[in-house]
Amino acid sequence: MRALAAAGLDRIGWIAAGLAALDRGEDLPEPFDDEGRAFDRLFTDPSVPRTLVPAPGGGNDDALQQAMALPALLAAAGPDPLRAALEALAHAAVTWGGARQELFAQARAQLPG
């Protein structure tokens, strides 16, 4: 999942386990069964990188890229495949920030015909 890779989260063991479960079509493991616990672990795990990027919508504030990326995994596990894909792509676009056009080009390249 490109959003998590862009944020450096795909190399974190417990997040990689969630990605692997998603790839296998399985339910996400703990702590992903509770969004609040997943974010608590994200914010307290010292192995998680902390990258500030421009906040969505412009302005002068920065946002934690990893916190913007994690919802892509949660969204991708949703029961409706189309909604899951669109929500995951939306979260990925926020995560990629100014490089989101590259993300969209990569996504388009994966679409059939």
Textual characterization of the structure:
The chain has helices spanning 2-6, 13-24, 35-44, 65-76, 81-96, 100-110, and strands spanning 52-54, 62-64. It has 113 residues and is mainly alpha-helical. Helix 3 packs antiparallel against helix 4 (65-76). The relative contact order is 0.17. The mean pLDDT is 89.
Write the layout of secondary structure elements.
Elements: H1 2-6, H2 13-24, H3 35-44, E1 52-54, E2 62-64, H4 65-76, H5 81-96, H6 100-110
Antiparallel strand pairs: 1-2
How would you concisely characterize the structure shown here?
By secondary structure, this protein is mainly α. Helix content is 58%, strand content 5%. Strands 1-2 form a two-stranded antiparallel sheet.
Which terms would index this structure?
single chain; 113 residues; mainly alpha; two-stranded antiparallel ribbon; 6 helices; 2 strands; 58% helix; 5% strand; globular
Query: Uncertain runs with pLDDT below 50, 5 residues or more?
Result: none
Strand element count = 2
Mean pLDDT, to the nearest integer, reads 89
Oligomer: single chain
Strand arrangement, largest sheet?
Answer: 1-2
| Overall domain count | 1
Task: Describe the global form.
Answer: globular
Kindly state the percentage of residues in helix: 55-70%
End-to-end separation:
22 Å
The largest β sheet comes out as: 2 strands, antiparallel
- Give helix and strand order, one letter per element, not per position: HHHEEHHH
